[in-house]
Specification:
By secondary structure, the protein is an all-alpha fold. The protein contains 9 helices and no strands.
Length: 157
C-alpha cells in the first residue's frame, strides 16, 4: 500500500475512497453511496410524546391513530384531545424539528459521518500533517458532491 502525497488532493481522495470501502460493511456503504434524497426503508413508531408534539404543530394524525388503535393514553394526550374537541386548542407556531428520516436523507449528514472516519484515517497515516480536519471535510464534501461550506456549517449546527 503506497500512501499518496498529502498535498495531492485527487490521489488522496481516491486513496481515502478505497480505504473507506475496505472499512465499511455493505449496509454502511449503502448509506454512503445512496443517491441523496432517496429515503431509507425504515418505518418509525411514534411514541405518545411525539404524537403530542406533532399535535402541537398542527398534525393530529398520529394522535388520532393512537385513539383508533385503542392505546392507553396518558393525561397529556387526553388533555390535548379534549382541548381540540372543545375548540380551545392553539397550534404552536414553530419550525418543526427534522425527523430521523429527514436527517438521514440530508447529504451533509452522511458526509459529516464520513468526515469523522476520514479524520481517523488521516490521523493514523499522516500524523505529522496539520489541518487534517480541514482536509477530511474537503474530501468528504467532494465525495458527497456538496459544497465544503455547506458541510462546515452543518457540522457546526
Amino acid at each position: 500500500m503506497t500512501l499518496p502525497k498529502y498535498n495531492d488532493e485527487e490521489a488522496l481522495l481516491q486513496w481515502v475512497g478505497e480505504r473507506l470501502a475496505e472499512q465499511y460493511d455493505e449496509d454502511e456503504m449503502e448509506h454512503y453511496l445512496r443517491p441523496w434524497g432517496e429515503a431509507p426503508a425504515v418505518r418509525t413508531v411514534m411514541t405518545e410524546a411525539a404524537a403530542i408534539r406533532a399535535a402541537e404543530d398542527g398534525n393530529f394524525n398520529p394522535l388520532a391513530c393512537m385513539v383508533e388503535e385503542g392505546d392507553d393514553l396518558g393525561p397529556g394526550a387526553r388533555a390535548v384531545i379534549a382541548s381540540k374537541m372543545r375548540g380551545t386548542f392553539k397550534v404552536k407556531r414553530r419550525r418543526p424539528k427534522r425527523t430521523a428520516e429527514q436527517t438521514e436523507r440530508h447529504p451533509c449528514y452522511w458526509a459529516s459521518k464520513e468526515a469523522d472516519d476520514i479524520v481517523e484515517l488521516l490521523d493514523r497515516f499522516y500524523p505529522k500533517h496539520k489541518k487534517r480536519m480541514d482536509t477530511a471535510v474537503t474530501i468528504a464534501a467532494r465525495r458527497a458532491g456538496i459544497k465544503r461550506k455547506a458541510l462546515e456549517s452543518y457540522r457546526k449546527s
